Amino acid sequence: MSGRIDIPEQELSERFVRAAGPGGQNVNKVATAVELRFDIAQSPSLPEAVRARLLAKRDRRVTAEGVLVINAQRFRTQDRNRQDARERLAAFVESGRAAPKPRIATKPSRAAKARRLDAKRERSTIKKGRSQRDWD
């Protein structure tokens, strides 16, 4: 699939919150962390195939209602965290664009079957040797 997927600003909802973790007074005072929400299930800008693939992913950031929640608090400034959240959203959407290659079923070769059976036979003789008691 060629072309880019453009997500309009209206489909994104951002909330600025205080970051968790170390950082001292700055972290306790300033709301620099960004919580970015994007409704995958209701988005008109996503093609149907991409939407289905993104919703099928077992990602903990996607809620049961199909809303992607990205928390960005890696940087000290609100603007940089906002940029980071949008980059992560773009990467997530991009990962859903590529259709997975269909798996082609193959059979093991005759030599591979023989190697497997030889290994099983060898393992069997090792285990049989452990169980025999001829101490007397």
UniProtKB/TrEMBL annotation:
Domain of life of the native organism: Bacteria
Signal peptide: none
Enzyme Commission number(s) of this protein: 3.1.1.29
Enzyme kind, highest EC tier: hydrolase
GO MF entries: peptidyl-tRNA hydrolase activity
Prokaryotic-type class I peptide chain release factors domain mapped to chain residues: 18-34
Keyword Hydrolase: yes
Biased composition (Basic and acidic residues): 115-136
Keywords from the named record: Hydrolase
Pfam family, one: RF-1
InterPro entries in the cross-refs: Pep_chain_release_fac_I
Region feature Disordered, mapped onto this chain: 92-136
NCBIfam families the record matches: PRK09256.1
Protein name in UniProt: Aminoacyl-tRNA hydrolase
Lineage: Bacteria, Pseudomonadati, Pseudomonadota, Gammaproteobacteria, Lysobacterales
